[in-house]
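# nightly structure sweep
# worker-07 picked up a monomer target from the shared queue
# config: single-sequence mode, recycle default, output format = structure tokens
# input follows
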Amino acid sequence: MERTTRTDLRQMVVVLNNLTLGEYNIGWAYGRPRVCKDNDSVNVSPRLPMGEMKTWLYAYMDGYRACCKDHNI
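# output follows
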């Protein structure tokens, strides 16, 4: 399995922002990434290792898509 990089996570957040029309970003705290919103004032995700954050982002986007589909948004 290929190693997850900071660039990978940043690109995934770009996709998330396009999907949700949001302003999410990746912040780092204590050496681990987290998804934040509103200029890092709101933590959306827990701090996770890089590979687990990638999995978390995929799950978050899949959940968002499923919710929009169920509600015809």
